[in-house]
Every structure is written in C-alpha cells, then in structure tokens.
Amino acid sequence: MLLRVKNLKKSFGSDTVLDDISFDVKKGEVIAILGRSGCGKSTLLRCLNGLERIDGGEIFLEEALITKSGAGYRHWTEIRKKIGMVFQSYDLFPHMNVLNNIILGPVRVEKRSRKEAVAEALKHLERVGLLEKQSSFPRELSGGQKQRAAICRALCMNPQIILFDEVTAALDPEMVREVLDVIKGLRDQGLTMLIVTHEMAFAEKVADKIIFIENGKIIETNTPEKFFSSPGTEEAKRFLNLLGNQAG
Amino acid sequence: MQNSGIENIIKAFPQLLGGISVTIKISIIALVLSVILGFTLGVIMTFKNRLLQGVLRILLEAFRLIHPIIWLFIFFFGAAYVLNINTNDVVVSILVFTLWGTFETADLVRSFITSLPKSQYESSMALGLSRPQMYIFVLLPQVVARTIPSIVNLATRLIKTTTLVYLIGVSEVLKISQNIIQLTYYRNPNSYIPFTMYLFLLIIYFIICYPLSLLARYLEKKAMA
C-alpha cells in the first residue's frame, strides 16, 4: 500500500472537520474525493502533507508512519518530497519565470544539477504544451497556463503521489479542459493521484475510486460507475441530485 | 555685498566640506548597517515566538517614539557614566542611527513579508523547501523590490536627522557652520553671515536630498507598475 490513512481526526477548535477518516491508496491508483464545499475534503489533502496538523489517527507512507507526534518542519520536508501538491490558486512564485519556478525544488531541495533539472523541466513543459512559455513570468500567463506550469513544478520533484486541491476551481470554463487533459495524461502514465474536485464528469472519467465525504466523514467509497449511476447511500444521492438540478 | 559673508564661507569651504563628509559618512554607514540588520531582524520578527515578538515590538516602538536626540544623549553620556568609558561621538552617532534605521527597515520588511499571500508559504512548503530556503528564494526576493523606495526615503531622513549629532559634539556641517558664524560675527558685527550661512546650508541639504527624493519617487512609480 502506498498511502494508508487510519482513523484520521482533525478539528479546528471545537469544530470537528474530519472524523475517523480511513482509506488506502494503492500505487497507480487515482482517487477522486467529492463532497460539498466545506465538507473537509481540502483539509484532508492538507493533512496528508503536513500543511495541517492532525489531532488523531495515523498516516502511513509506504508502511512507514509519517504522523509521529512532535514531527517538526524538517520531518515534513522529507515527506513533501514524496507527496506533491497542486493548489487551487496555482501559487507560482511571481518573481521567477516558469522554468525557474519548476527547477527550484529539484535544484535546492533535491540538490540535482541545474542542467539535469532543466532537461527534465523542459520534458514536462513540452508534455503540457508550455515549452514556448518557459521564460515567461507567471503574470504573463493565463490561469490555465499557470496551473499547467504548477503541475509541472510538482511533477519535477518526482513525487510518489500528487494531491490536487480543486485545481480547476479558479479557472474560466474554457481553461478547465486543458488542465483536466493534463491530469488525464498523468493518469495514463500511472501516476498515483488524489483529486479533490467539483468536476463530476471529470471525476467519473479519470478516477478508479470515488470517496464521498459529508460533514467530515467518509459516507461512501465506490467505483465511479456505481457512484454516479446508483449511489449506495442517501447522502450521495442527495448530493448528486443537487448537482443534477443545478446543471439542469 | 561686503557684509554678506560670502567670502568667509568661501574661505572656510574646505572645513565645510569636511563637515558635509562627516554627515554623509555617518548616514551611509548607518544606512548600510540598517539595511543588513533590518532585513535580518525583519525576518526574525515574522517568526511565531510570542516572547521574541513582544521584546522586539517594545524596542521598535522605543526607537520610533523616542526622539533620536534622547538616544544620542543616553548612549553618549549614559554609556560614559555607567560603563565608565570614553564614548566616541562619531561611533555613538553611527550606533544610534543604525539602531533607528534597523528598526524602521525591520518593521517594513516584516510587514511586507506577512502581507505576502499565505499560499506562497504553503506552496514553498509543499515543494519541500526548508525554512531558510523559503525565505531566501521565495519570500525575500518578492519583498526587496518593494522596500527600495522606502529605504531611499530612509536615507534622506537619515541625512537630515544626523544634523542632531552636533549636539554631542560631532563636527558635522551644522557645527562647523556655527563656528564660522561666530568667528565672522566676532570680527565684523555688521555681517549678514548667519543668513548667508544658513541659506548655504539649505542649498547643501537640498542638493544632497532632492536627488534622493526624486529617486525614491521614481522607484515607487516603478514598483507600482
């Protein structure tokens, strides 16, 4: 098992945002995490790479416990090399061009040679169709281009798993597709991914497994086919109905 | 024309130049140290340590609210008295203005760093950058350009305010001017030397500070763009 989450609990003050969350991620698996806004799905992703401290439970990466109590910044630095993350707001560094954004991690964190890092960065940029933008600054790019560059930045660290936190939520509709296509491409290469998204059609197409969360609890875990055609729980039905009504 | 005192100023010009160079020397050394120490302290002020924050906050307010003259006196006379040492007037001046400039710069750097979007920290962390790397490669470079106009501004204020060091006996340009006024007056009570001398000083300060002010305005415009 690549990643194992056991009885994870997280609260902000007296608010329990995640309660008794357990699931496994196999290598090469793509899991879509669905749920209403504020159900705790983004918090869950942030717990997995230590951006949020958890209040209970355990997380294992390749069978090694990564949530030891008292684990400091350094410990998480090591984990974050293996668990990449792409955010909703792209978060490229505005003072660096695209190429330098991408090679910062490989050169500074992994101490790889600049030349080698550049070669790999260009390979990723070419794959997402941004080769000609390598010297552009983030402010010169469209939202979709920024997000694709941010994905390259995460890829270039060669993580074992990448967390996508609503990566298309801030994009104009016509740019959503170009980003989703990139993620589909990654899936075909066998990358392990956890995807928090509001794009149901995309989740259905790309995921091997759907995890549906409501009020901080996993309500249903299912295959995409079953989840979208005949969900096993009332909560999921209501969630899908609501979306259906909105779409209609 | 005879009583204008211009020829006295011309005669004393080398001394005046010496005084100006003392002013500029104190200002430049204090500025350079302020920038180096200010950036360091500014970074430290963003750390989440309550005690450290509190202490630095108090020192910052102290240096902001209490007039530099008082600090000059405290360090010059106080240190001489308490530590029983011979305080050097120029060293004390540099020290006081460095502390002043350091806290000004530090607070500026702190506020710019904390105003960066939280996502900049998070995406640095998510990349596995260590804390020093996050500051060196991500946070500080975004802040430097924005601090430059204020630092140039600080330079102008330093040059103007360092005039005060004449009060602890540093022979800077104001002190020397006053000597010249006294001497000229003593020899020729009809001389207009005070007026001419201070007009001369005004021009000198304008010549030094105006280009800096223009530079600050230009940099500010550039930073906004």
What does this protein structure show overall?
- The complex is a heterodimer of chains A (248) and B (225).
- By secondary structure, chain A is α/β, with parallel strands linked by helices.
- Chain A has one domain: Rossmann fold.
- Helices cover 40% and strands 24% of the residues of chain A.
- Chain A has 9 helices and 10 strands.
- Chain A has helices at 41-48, 73-82, 98-109, 114-127, 143-155, 173-188, 200-206, 224-229, 234-247; strands spanning 3-12, 15-25, 30-34, 56-61, 64-65, 83-86, 161-165, 192-196, 209-214, 217-222.
- In chain A, strands 6-7-8-3-9-10 form a 6-stranded mixed sheet, sandwiched between helices. Chain A has a 4-stranded antiparallel sheet with strand order 2-1-4-5, covered by helices on one side.
- In chain A, strand 7, helix 6 and strand 8 (192-196) form a beta-alpha-beta unit.
- The radius of gyration of chain A is 18 Å and the shape is globular.
- In chain A, 45% of the residues are buried.
- With 225 residues, chain B is mainly alpha-helical.
- Chain B has one domain: Orthogonal Bundle (MetI-like fold).
- Helix content of chain B is 81%, strand content 0%.
- Chain B is built from 9 helices and no strands.
- In chain B, helix 8 (173-187) packs antiparallel against helix 9.
- The longest helix of chain B has 32 residues, at 13-44.
- The termini of chain B are far apart.
- Chains A and B meet through helix 2, helix 3 and helix 5 of A and helix 6 and helix 7 of B.
Write the layout of secondary structure elements.
The complex is a heterodimer of chains A (248) and B (225).
Chain A: E1 3-12, E2 15-25, E3 30-34, H1 41-48, E4 56-61, E5 64-65, H2 73-82, E6 83-86, H3 98-109, H4 114-127, H5 143-155, E7 161-165, H6 173-188, E8 192-196, H7 200-206, E9 209-214, E10 217-222, H8 224-229, H9 234-247
Helix pairs in contact in A: 3-4, 3-5, 5-6
Chain B: H1 6-11, H2 13-44, H3 50-65, H4 68-82, H5 89-115, H6 118-126, H7 131-161, H8 173-187, H9 193-224
Helix pairs in contact in B: 2-5, 2-7, 2-8, 3-5, 4-5, 5-7, 6-7, 7-9, 8-9
